[in-house]
Amino acid sequence: MTNKTLLIIGASKGIGRHAVDCALASGCSVRAMARGADRIDLEHERLEKFPGDATDADDVRRALDGVDAVILAIGMPAGITRLLRPVTVFSRSTEVLVDEMEANGPKRLVAVTGFGAGETRSAMNAVEELGHNMVLGRAYADKSVQEKIVERSSLDWTIVRPTILTNGRATGKYKALVDPESWRNGFISRADVAEFLVECALDAKHLHEAPVLTDGCLPTI
Prior knowledge:
Elements: E1 5-9, H1 14-25, E2 29-34, E3 47-51, H2 57-64, E4 69-72, H3 81-84, H4 89-104, E5 108-112, H5 126-151, E6 156-162, E7 164-166, E8 175-177, E9 187-189, H6 190-202, E10 212-214
Parallel strand pairs: 1-2, 1-4, 2-3, 4-5, 5-6, 6-10, 7-9
Antiparallel strand pairs: 8-10
Helix pairs in contact: 1-6, 2-4, 4-5
């Protein structure tokens, strides 16, 4: 159990929503930031719902007040936006967050990107890369920019790159692959990713590393 307070950005759905549950279960207090934070379907004495815009410096500054670590888990743009329009929400929100954290704290940041961002693109085979580019190319180009912003910061950062996400339960049976030679695609539940994020946020696990997170089961191409 811990008495730390975590700020979870992107807390209303997906990995971020699972991270809220994991953090509360570990004994943390949670400030759950999202545009739709008021719609989070949970009430808890250690949960503060914080409606806000992750690209707005004033909102982010207020959200950071008094927290010990930050989990950045903004989800993918909905619908065809990610196919037809430039995606910048990942880089813009990360730039605002890093600036505010460097100025006022805290120092610990755990950010979610994904397999296919940054150098992990080189670990894809030709078929994977083609499909990825068609569906997620714009979003992951911005996630790659996001990673560079984090890596160049003075923060105590960890970047987490999950592979193909599922809605399964947490199993704890996954691998955190740090060595580029070991990087490979696979599957992992959002619940497992969330548990890993909280573990990293509460200690120095994988400090200044960017592991690929996978269950080790290769997808059928």
